[in-house]
Amino acid sequence: MRVALFVPCYIDQFYPQVAVASLELLEKLGCEVIVPTDQTCCGQPMANSGFASSTEGCDTNFTNNFAGFDYIVGPSGSCVLHLKEHHPSEKIRNSVYEICEFLTDVLRITSLSAKFPHRVGLHQSCHGQRGLRLSSMTERNEKSFSKLEDLLGLVEGVEILKPERADECCGFGGTFCVTEEAVSVKMGQDRIKEHDANAVEYIVGADTSCLMHMEGILRRQGSSIQVKHIVEILNHE
């Protein structure tokens, strides 16, 4: 299977290890992975701030880099959801997948060679949960499910712990964390408090943006808890 790897700009700049882990994991699972070298921002920051008309350059560049692929996979639910909902190319909208969605729904993996003997707190990001349906939502009173939890369950030694309010927002919210800084920080502190109560070693999620937000709070608190994107664990041996 030939797959194009979409690397969101904040991962490229701040968490390149997530992109590397995504590449390695997909290759281990038998995919031929192409990383288009001229890719840049998907346009989500402008669209979220009310400047959707300013994303034309991003849209065109994304099309130029990815239009030739049947599968476009990225390790960021919020960026992928933006492309699914707002990119002008129907082919792009139908071809782009968040990496956990791709692993469960397209590759349908049932085993991994990964090992990670640690206590991890699972964070369900809002875009992945409510936009991409990576997990159930408590407000819908539906049968509980989580594609992230299913994938982590394939990792030897991992102990999964969930906060009491399992699907509450961490407060990042893209530009919300800039325009409503105090509210954003308090929401992040509340999330971390519940994970801390579970004595986790790592907070794990599928959106590095949310993890970045919580990591900043953890560092300021002097906490020993670390954050990891889920692909870093799924690829860990």
UniProtKB/TrEMBL annotation:
InterPro entries: Cys_rich_dom. One of its GO terms (cellular component) is cytosol. One of its GO terms (molecular function) is oxidoreductase activity. It comes from the Bacteria. Residues 3-84, 120-214 form the Cysteine-rich domain. PANTHER family: LACTATE UTILIZATION PROTEIN A, UNCHARACTERIZED PROTEIN YKGE. This is (Fe-S)-binding protein. It comes from Aquirufa antheringensis.
